[in-house]
Amino acid sequence: FLFIINPVSGIKNNQMIAKQIIQILNDHHIAIDIIYTKYKNHAQEHVLNMKDPAYSGILILGGDGTINEILNGILLRQDGYLPTFGFLPGGTGNSVLHDLNYLDPVSALSPILKNTIKYIDVMSLTFSHHIEYSINILGWGLVSDIAILAEKLRFIGQLRYDIASLYYIIKLKTRDCQLIIDNKTYIDKYIFILIQNTIHTGKGMKAAPNALLDDGLIDVIFVNKAANRFELIKLLAKLSKGTHIQSQYVQYEQVHKIKLFPTVNEAVNIDGDVKNKTPVEVSVLPKKLPIYY
Questions:
Q1: pLDDT above 90 (res 204)
Q2: What are phi and psi of 160, to 5 degrees?
Q3: What DSSP string runs through 108-156?
Q4: pLDDT band at 41 (very low <50, low <70, confident <90, very high)
Q5: Contact 77, 21 (CB under 8 A)
């Protein structure tokens, strides 16, 4: 295996967790090469540029952003190399690991040690000049605003998301957007849109409670212009249990493809990292990625 460790991801000491995992792998006589990431996109650059890789699997100790880097590095290769991914929780949100119910690093090793594999869907994100990939989320509108401000407030710790959320709820901005969903066109104002492959986003929030990692569908949550500040606060409070989808202000669809054409093009939130700009087309690659599960 190649074992990629993001030592600064999340809120725990990933270097200590990594030592424990390395010892267990050694005890099971599993050969590993180890890489500690040193800067943003280091993991993506490394796996993209590996020459003649012989690894059957890549183990990842990091957050959703680290997973996204490695996913893109592998799928952007030209040689078709596709190792099996092993996810170990080492981030703040661990959205993918919440779906898999592997929130303890040692427990998450179990399918790796047993060599049990399943295939999950991948979202293909087509922008004006390039393609990226995701197995978690693309968010537009309020959710991107919150992520940008929360990153600037990183020095205050976990409260940064609450403060950023409150700030943008008070501002309450709606945006015009044309949507093409499975070849049907809609035009309206939205507060935010979440496009998900996973149930979870953020820190255990069940934003798309009906999502499955391998159903060949994308789950889309639309929050429309009618929600006022008070209703939006109530709505966001329901995210942890997934009951927000019962709200009259929320539309929840499972689709194969969606295109966003906002009046004003802005950056989107991809697996926790705000980057690129709309327009964007999101489609599903069914059961594209092998993972240990």
A1: no
A2: -60, -35
A3: HTHHHHHT-EEEEEEEEEE-SS-EEEESSEEEEEHHHHHHHHHHHTGGG
A4: very high
A5: no
